[in-house]
Amino acid sequence: ENKKTIRQYEIMINTLTSLRFIFAIMVFGAHCYVIDNVFNTHFFKEGFVGVSFFFVLSGFIIAYNYQKKFSENKITKRAFWVARIARIYPLHWLTLFIAVALGNYVIASGAIDWLKHFLASLTLTNAYIPKADYFFSFNSPSWSLCCEQLFYLCFPFLIPIAKDYKKLLCVFFVSAILIVIGMHFTPETDIKGYWYVNPITRLPDFLAGMLLFQLYDRLKGKNITAYQGSIIEIASIALFLAFYLYAAEIPKVYRYSCYYWLPVAFLLISFSLQKGIVSRLLSNRILVIGGEISYSFYLIHLFVLLSYAEWQKGSNFHIAWYISIPILFCIIVLLSLLSYYYFEKPMNKRIKTLLNK
């Protein structure tokens, strides 16, 4: 029975890992406008929803892996935080120093101002400052790591609330109501700093993921046929696409988080149950490897796109986007594979060993 449970977990994780790669590709597509204006459309630029998916997925996976361990005192806060630091910081610092070496990735008025930006990025506190020159300084995708850092810090303290899903649901709903009211009264010029990158206002995304784990825990034993599972999975994809394509009609401030909670939640829960044909297709090894390298892919991709765009500006040799984009994508995937296997994994082990001494 235990082997069967482990096997089910591995299959579920594989499917959700593959989804991570798909959403990372959407983020990549959202940034391709720096290469060609053909990508400067709603269909591509709305790919920022990938970050919302990562946050909700993070809440789900962290709760799946650690909630029971904390409840049964099988893990300490320190061990949990060490594991999380080892996960995000090595690659974050590497890409930060690459941005420093490349230059032109931060707007600062002088050496002292530059140092303030650098320290904020180094400690992953830059997203708390609602100024684009801070939260998008150096390697700009790293702002989302500020949010993840807060989620990890809060998680052990959320366990007593999470034991009773009704309490967690109340906390989520109160947060959601306050966020929607706050969004309504925020000037257009401030919405990104307060509602897109701010770790405090993105915490409900993580809470949504924790709630989804509670739902998954109640549904996983249900007798759902492969046919029913396939219908649920296809319906979740259709719902997500409907929200995604209709999003242009919705004020952007809501699309930064709360607008996508429902379709992302339905997508995640339907594929976590592992009952349909689509989830089996997502267990493909190539897609799973793509999901495993998605963190590297996410932190590396913008360097490659911006470096190429800069080169194109000063070059007389122009390459059509339908040739350059696939080549750049392959380069990013190759760099991500190298990063994952030869930097991320070894450094993860090394940091854990060092901090657990």
Structural write-up:
- There is one protein chain.
- This protein is mainly α.
- The protein contains 17 helices and no strands.
- The protein has helices spanning 2-31, 42-45, 49-71, 77-102, 111-122, 132-135, 143-162, 165-184, 191-196, 199-219, 226-246, 252-255, 261-272, 277-281, 285-292, 294-313, 321-355.
- Helix 7 (143-162) packs across helix 10.
- It is globular and about 60 Å long.
- The mean pLDDT is 91.
Nutshell version of this structure?
About 75% of the residues lie in helices and about 0% in strands.
Count the DSSP helices.
17
How would the global form be characterised? globular
End-to-end Cα distance: 35 Å
Helix content range: over 70%
N-to-C series of helices and strands = HHHHHHHHHHHHHHHHH
Mean pLDDT: 91
Which structural class do the helices and strands define? Answer: mainly alpha
Which band does the percent of strand residues land in?
under 5%
Question: What Rg, in angstroms, do the CA atoms define?
Answer: 20 Å
DSSP strand tally: 0
Largest sheet report: none
Regions with pLDDT < 50 over 5+ consecutive residues?
none
What structural keywords apply?
0% strand, 17 helices, mainly alpha, 357 residues, single chain
Question: How are the elements arranged and paired?
Answer:
Blueprint: H1 2-31, H2 42-45, H3 49-71, H4 77-102, H5 111-122, H6 132-135, H7 143-162, H8 165-184, H9 191-196, H10 199-219, H11 226-246, H12 252-255, H13 261-272, H14 277-281, H15 285-292, H16 294-313, H17 321-355
Helix pairs in contact: 1-3, 1-15, 1-16, 3-7, 3-10, 3-13, 4-7, 4-16, 4-17, 7-10, 8-10, 10-13, 11-13, 16-17
